[in-house]
């Protein structure tokens, strides 16, 4: 089976994890210290993506199909005045 992530992408994640542990990893715009393990991994993967390494695309948030259908119905109606 083929690798999902390249070795360089794994190295980026490892670097982000080490920076988080030492307390020097900061998030994007706000510049706050990153404490979450998951957020550190996400930062490492996004940096690898930016450099063009082999990383699967970011997953989009999924709504349940019933919610999607009901929101379409609501938006299609016009109110009577």
Mean pLDDT: 85
Please mark out the parts with pLDDT under 50 across 5 or more consecutive residues, or reply none. none
Beta content: under 5%
Would you tell me the structural class of the helices and strands?
mainly alpha
Helical content band: 40-55%
> Any idea what the radius of gyration is?
19 Å
> Count of helices?
3
**What does the main sheet amount to?**
none
The ordered string of helix (H) and strand (E) elements is HHH
Query: Could you tell me the number of beta strands?
Result: 0
Measure the end-to-end span: 61 Å
The coarse overall form would be: elongated
Model description:
The chain is mainly α and 81 residues long. It has a domain at 1-53. Helix content is 52%, strand content 0%. The chain has helices at residues 7-22, 37-50, 65-76. Helix 1 (7-22) crosses helix 2 (37-50). The longest helix is centred in the first third of the chain and has 16 residues, at 7-22. The relative contact order is 0.17. The mean pLDDT is 85.
């Amino acid at each position: 089976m083929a690798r999902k992530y390249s070795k360089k992408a794994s190295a980026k994640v490892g670097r982000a994890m080490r920076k988080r542990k030492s307390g020097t990893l900061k998030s994007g715009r706000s510049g706050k210290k990153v404490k979450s393990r998951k957020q550190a991994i996400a930062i490492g993967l996004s940096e690898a993506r930016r450099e063009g390494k082999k990383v699967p695309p970011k997953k989009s948030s999924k709504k349940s199909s019933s919610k999607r259908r009901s929101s379409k119905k609501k938006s299609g109606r016009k109110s009577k005045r």
